[in-house]
Amino acid sequence: MQKITEVTGKGIAVRGNDMDTDRIIPARFMKEVTFTNMGKYAFYDERFDEKGSKKTHPFNDEKFGKASILIVNKNFGCGSSREHAPQSLMRWGIKAIIGESFADIFEGNCSMMGLPTATSKKETIDELMAFVENYPDEDIKVDIQNGKIELDSTGFEIHMNHSIKKLLVEGTWDTTSMMLEAKGEIKKTMSGLPYTHNF
Length: 199
What we know:
By secondary structure, this protein is α/β, with parallel strands linked by helices. The chain has a single domain, classed as Aconitase, domain 4 (Alpha-Beta Barrel). 32% of the residues lie in helices and 17% in strands. It is built from 8 helices and 7 strands, in the order βααβαβαβαβββααα. It has helices spanning 21-24, 44-47, 84-92, 104-112, 122-134, 162-170, 175-181, 183-191; strands spanning 6-13, 67-71, 96-99, 117-119, 139-143, 148-151, 154-157. β5 (139-143) and β6 (148-151) form a beta hairpin. The longest helix has 13 residues, at 122-134.
């Protein structure tokens, strides 16, 4: 199992409170059978007009093309419970999200994908946003295990849901892989249960 104790990468900021899942990925793109192409739909209506021409948006800016640490504001991922929202961000290239706060279901969906979400106070988020906008080529280190984020020579405190942090650090966030690895034990247990003999 993959333990996720830290994530290092370049940053990108998407400003705005109450960024709901329909803005992260419009509902019409949920018809796809797999999540494979979801990355190209991230913030689609924020990035393109009705004719498909690009709007001004950080995800369209070439200077943020290698970014993997997303900085956001308050109540990010609110609205529906669609897993497609964090899937689209992860498949665009995002490996961690730092914000003022997150919607609970969105945060839970991220954790099941091994996509860390951490919070910090507004003043810290403002400073992080300004930094990544001014220095897009500088790396940011998200230290999950020790609860801090480091950029340049400065460190900031971050907070994570204790249960989610435990899953990431211990490498037990991927429950599907865990079940596949334990399929021998599962079959053995099933064979001893009278109500599973027909399976």
